[in-house]
Write a structure and sequence with these properties.
Elements (H helix, E strand, L loop, with lengths): L1 E6 L8 H19 L5 H6 L9 H11 L2 E12 L9 H20 L4 H18 L5 E11 L4
Helix pairs in contact: 1-5, 4-5
Length: 150
């Protein structure tokens, strides 16, 4: 079985590269609250349980479960911002929007999604100019094999 997870290389569970886009979306959401386009109570009640594990945390869970063996496990760091991978803030935010919008639109409503992600793109562009944006995406590739029962 081959599994690919979003992950992190750092031991720090709140590493910038793991949660940067959620922080940008939070800043954009706060801005729309200040403009009266999103109800503040809806912002405060939004809970997105998102976690990027480390390679060691995944290995620990596999070992603890004890029905699989790890044939291969490694991290792959995809550099963001280069010519071949999300070169613009617009493309980077479109990628993030592709999986975050269903969660966020359910909370805030479809009618503000374009404004929300446009503001997030603007924040991302400003961060990129200042060098404050996330620089890589970490994938953890794992090849597992079922243990033989004797």
């Amino acid at each position: 079985m081959v599994l690919i997870f979003n992950g992190r290389q750092s031991k720090d569970p709140v590493d910038k590269d793991a949660y940067y886009f959620w922080e940008v979306l939070a800043e954009a959401s706060s801005y729309l609250v200040s403009q009266g386009l999103i109800d503040e109570e809806k912002l405060h009640s939004l809970n997105v349980p998102y976690y990027n594990p480390s390679l060691n945390e995944i290995q620990h869970l596999i070992d603890e479960e004890d029905s699989l063996t790890t044939e291969f496990m490694d991290t792959i760091a995809l550099e963001i911002g280069g010519q071949s991978f999300w070169p613009s803030p617009e493309l980077r935010m479109k990628n993030f929007r592709s999986f975050s919008e269903p969660i966020v639109s359910n909370q805030f409503g479809e009618e503000v999604m374009d404004k929300l992600y446009n503001k997030a793109t603007q924040i991302l562009a400003d961060d990129m100019k200042q060098g404050k944006d996330a620089t890589k995406h970490i994938a953890i590739v794992t090849v597992l094999k079922k243990k033989e029962i004797i």
